[in-house]
Amino acid sequence: MPATETQRAVEAVWRIESARLVAGLGRLVRDVGLAEELAQDALVAALEQWPSTGVPDNPGAWLTTVAKRRLVDLVRRRERYDRKLAQLGRDLETEAADGTAAIDAAAEDHIEDDVLRLIFVACHPVLSTEARVALTLRLVGGLSTGEIARGFLVPEPTVAKRIVRAKRTLSDAKVPFEVPEGAEREARLDSVLEVIYLIFNEGYSATEGDDWLRPELCTEALRLGRVLAGLTPDEPEVHGLVALMEIQESRSAARTGPDGTPIRLLDQDRSRWNQLFVRRGLAALDRAWSTDRPPGPYAVQAAIAACHVRARTPEQTDWVGMAALYERLAALTGSPVVELNRAVALGMAYGPAAGLALVDALRDEPALAGYHLLPSVRGDLLEKLGRQAEAAAEFVRAASLTRNSREQTLLRERAAACAEQLGEPAGDPAR
């Protein structure tokens, strides 16, 4: 297999397997920083060996075996490790010798999910909220610091420093590798939900690269959400998050054309929406709204998403109700991104001028500086108002801000379409 193909294969395997690899190692060594180092060592070994040996039939098991052998070597070098770690080294050495994965009895507890343990560890209160989310996206989602930075709308070096400090803090605090119980679990739940949803969003709309979707991240986030719902059946926000992800995932098959080109929601073939996911999502939504506790942000977002899947055609969408739900969500979150989404709903419910008024009020919002969807939404509203030249300029600006090549192409095509209506050269729509 050519080296470039092997490298792509290694990158694909890493995206899928890194969370489980780091989580499994973390349970063994009780140190997420060390677990990630061992996993990275295995990745380097794959890049060195797979071009000549080929990709193994079970690449995840291969990476795990190599990482555990590295741990054996590390244990041997650290003679001052206590007796427990020495015993761990002997157990791992036996396992590495026959190339099989040992069945760890510790994994057979009532959680039965190393990745979920890893999320709760990374969301420990000893870390700041920003550090918890960044670290977990790095370890569990396998995202780069650049992808995380764009998700938070903060500089990349800031995220890198947060991750380094977070791993050091967890190690110094000797945080146990376990899912907490009782009040401590409740304290960490909000951060865990945020992490799972950010992982889902990176899979649902990739921030950069040639692919609009990363299905493996959506699948992993949904799996974690469902496991968490089973663990906390009386938490309405957990069911709200699951409902939101299920409903959004139901539209995945219709979100791109045969060549991978993105298709906007209102232009999608609704017959391609997955009704199994829709039913699951609506059932989880009913569960989230059926308690005496007021619905939280995820339950409200799920209700917004449900407005789309309940409508047979775009014209049947309850835009007025959706705008009211966005207003409720904005009051809960104070998020300028939510306000931007509310502007879209207002534009559909009461006309593009109503939406544009809110967008213009957000143009000086610091958190939205450099956020490509601000000019994208503004361009859409201007286009509907017949202000084609201004709309084209906004689409060009939006294309320059996104790093996803598929999205760049879509935005440039929209800019060119506006320019053509004005009789201007498509290559210079902003002129």
Number-wise, the strands total 2
Averaged pLDDT, please? Answer: 83
* Major sheet description: 2 strands, parallel
Spell out the helices and strands N to C.
HHHHHHHHHEHHHHHHHHHEH
Helix content: 55-70%
* Strand arrangement, major sheet: 1-2
Overall morphology: globular
Write the layout of secondary structure elements.
Blueprint: H1 3-29, H2 32-53, H3 59-77, H4 83-98, H5 114-122, H6 129-139, H7 145-152, H8 156-173, H9 182-204, E1 208-209, H10 215-231, H11 236-250, H12 275-289, H13 297-309, H14 319-333, H15 336-350, H16 352-362, H17 373-384, H18 388-401, E2 403-404, H19 405-422
Parallel strand pairs: 1-2
Describe this structure in words.
It contains 19 helices and 2 strands. With 431 residues, it is mostly helical. Among the domains are: 1-100, no CATH class; 370-431, no CATH class. Helix 2 (32-53) crosses helix 3 (59-77). The longest helix is centred in the N-terminal third of the chain and has 27 residues, at 3-29. It is globular and about 70 Å long. The model is unreliable at 100-112, 207-212 and 426-431 (pLDDT under 50).
Structure described in brief:
The chain is mostly helical and 431 residues long.
